[in-house]
Amino acid sequence: MIAVAAPSALLNAGPGWGVRLVGIAVVVTFMVSYALFRDWERFGPLLLRHPTLLAADTLFGALLLVSAGPDTTLAYVSVCTPLLAGLIYGWRGAAVFASLQGVILLLVHATLDKPHTEPAETLILPGLCVIAGAVGSSLRKLMLHLGEATRALAAVRARLAVTEAVDAERARLAREMHDSVAKTLHGVALAADGLACSAGAARMDPALVKRQAELVARSARRAAAESRELLTDLRREGAPGGASSVDVTAELACAAREFRVRTGAPVTYARTGEAPAPPVPRTVARQLLTITSEAMENAHRHARATRVDVRAGVRGDVLTVSVRDDGTGLPGRPAAPDLDRLRREGHFGLVGMVERAASVGARISFGRGERGRGTEVRLELPLGALVTTTRVTEVHHDR
To answer: 138: helix, coil or strand?
Structure first.
């Protein structure tokens, strides 16, 4: 508006110093306004501390307004000054600058060649200045309340995020304890009970007692090893370098072999698919291995299976891992399990498997085995999720 009104102001200015003063006013007011709009983050605090800067800008604009006349667009733009004062300084600043701008507009009307102007025409712009100042002050209050509400909402969200993080960590630790140390300690307790019964029998068999004592010792050492492994993994997940990749199919084959040796269960492993599986981040591989181990443990301990088949491979762009047995099965178990129902029924192992699969972006389903017998736990991990998981882990370690 200053640029549009500049030609009219220069034409109406007197020769000599009049034109010079109007030209100076055009340059100063234009550059000050441009600087404020362009670098408000820089000059806004300065303007907050020094209201005289806005007053000086208003006076320079008055010189331009006197020369251009009250019938130009610049006169209507001048109501923005009390609006800005209301936004920055509140109702006191709005009152001061509305009065100042109103006086300037009345003086501009007084300098006209035809002073006989209708009172309504003379007072319309000063009245708009008062209204603009009130609007600016009201908007300031509204923005302050909105800012307080935004900060309160951010604080609530931060507290909720902390609570969710704590709950997630508690659930993760519960899964780790359930899937490793708790089961081994349960085995130690059973082996110790058997040893106590054998040692307290009327005719004690030294060979049987020895075997049971060795079983207790092995189970205790395994519990200690699992505890150390759990602590090591917890430290490794937050340490740099924890995002290294492993061959998950080789790890699954090793896990099936170790489970067969430890429990004597008839577990077989086979690699399937059209292409070799790509390297998997260690954190993802650990979740897949734990789910597979839990499925084998359930088949051996609860389903009384006589055969457990583990299969893993890539079909298309999906890494598939399945654990199939010929045991008693899970009657009525849906393919998409309800976590709340599983928790109520006490199936915390299945809950942990579902949560682990979701944490790495995989899909897990529980269904019937071959010919409707037994159970099949099927895990499908899109290969695109491996890229996302790797990037998230790298960002976490960079932070």
So the answer is: helix
